[in-house]
Amino acid sequence: MAPTTSSKELPDYRYPKQTNEKLEWADLEALDISKLEQPGGKEALATQVLNFIDKNGFFYVTGHGLSDEQIRRQYALANELFELPLEEKTKYLANTAAGDFRGYKAKATGKLAGKDNDERYNIPKFTPEHERPHPEIILDHYKEIRDFSLHIHNKILLPLLKIFAFALEIDEDYFVNRHRYDAEGLEYLRYMKYHPDPKDLWAIGHTDYNTLTFLFHQPVAGLQVQTKEGWRYVRSKEDSIIVNVADALEFLSGGYLKSTVHRVIRPPPDQAEKPRLSLIYFARPEAAIKLEPVKSPLLERLGLQKETEGGVASVTAEEWARARIAKDHRFRAGLAKTRETEIIAGVHQKYYD
């Protein structure tokens, strides 16, 4: 179902105030991707990546072409969506037991309330494969959401993939050709709402299972990245998108681009009593792409070139993602009493405090 844009007005969304608490912030690099097409821009950006990527897989992207108004519109949509009655939202439940994140996930309640305190709505790629029912608020703004998602894929994700390929000294379209928007695969925009909760740890330390994760400006502190110095807060800047490298890109890059460990903790006292909205885009390889490491002259010189047989190299992006989603579902749903470690093909997931 692909309705046209609605004329319905959305309430204006204003960001919460920044915290006044003195926090230890991570020192992150910023890639200005507007320089990519400038003379020498590609080389400069690739050099910048090579200088920081072994220290931290979190970084900022500027020059991304999305306005503050466009981003706040998406937050306004998220607000309206989560204000719907629970019985309405649960009409669109995601089948996480089958490793499918499309649709709605409610926050845990009852005996499972300690598992998580967030609710989510995941909007997949706007391709025939993913046509599905949505709440009216989504259908009313379908074209706007689609344009926003397409901009992230085409104008932010693909340029970054070109920069990474250039840094690895491989065909610039190597990663791009494994992320074709029209090909089968689950890439999605997420609206997320953390509800106030007294526990300190809201999302245990983990890596993401996709290619790159894009986190849009949200001043409520709580996101932390694991650095060599320990856990550090990630400051959200109004003109920047926070980006982190995830599992699939680590596998495809032969382990050179590291999937970054991060977590979400209870916000500082001056922000802890209000919900925390998140606007996130998860980019993922095409479903049939095997997660085998690229052959790279840079990796050869560094002695990091990996063999391609067995293990995760024989697993597709879809198999990897579904296995991780289903494993997490079993724990959240109480079907597994302890967190399972093996994901698939002998690859194990680590957990962090």
From TrEMBL:
<dbReference type="Pfam" id="PF14226">
    <property type="entry name" value="DIOX_N"/>
</dbReference>
<keyword id="KW-0479">Metal-binding</keyword>
<keyword id="KW-0408">Iron</keyword>
<protein>
    <submittedName>
        <fullName>UPF0676 protein</fullName>
    </submittedName>
</protein>
<dbReference type="Pfam" id="PF03171">
    <property type="entry name" value="2OG-FeII_Oxy"/>
</dbReference>
<comment type="similarity">
    <text>Belongs to the iron/ascorbate-dependent oxidoreductase family.</text>
</comment>
<dbReference type="GO" id="GO:0016491">
    <property type="term" value="F:oxidoreductase activity"/>
</dbReference>
<dbReference type="GO" id="GO:0044283">
    <property type="term" value="P:small molecule biosynthetic process"/>
</dbReference>
<keyword id="KW-0560">Oxidoreductase</keyword>
<dbReference type="InterPro" id="IPR044861">
    <property type="entry name" value="IPNS-like_FE2OG_OXY"/>
</dbReference>
<dbReference type="InterPro" id="IPR050231">
    <property type="entry name" value="Iron_ascorbate_oxido_reductase"/>
</dbReference>
<dbReference type="InterPro" id="IPR026992">
    <property type="entry name" value="DIOX_N"/>
</dbReference>
<dbReference type="GO" id="GO:0046872">
    <property type="term" value="F:metal ion binding"/>
</dbReference>
<dbReference type="InterPro" id="IPR027443">
    <property type="entry name" value="IPNS-like_sf"/>
</dbReference>
<dbReference type="InterPro" id="IPR005123">
    <property type="entry name" value="Oxoglu/Fe-dep_dioxygenase_dom"/>
</dbReference>
<feature type="domain" description="Fe2OG dioxygenase">
    <location>
        <begin position="185"/>
        <end position="285"/>
    </location>
</feature>
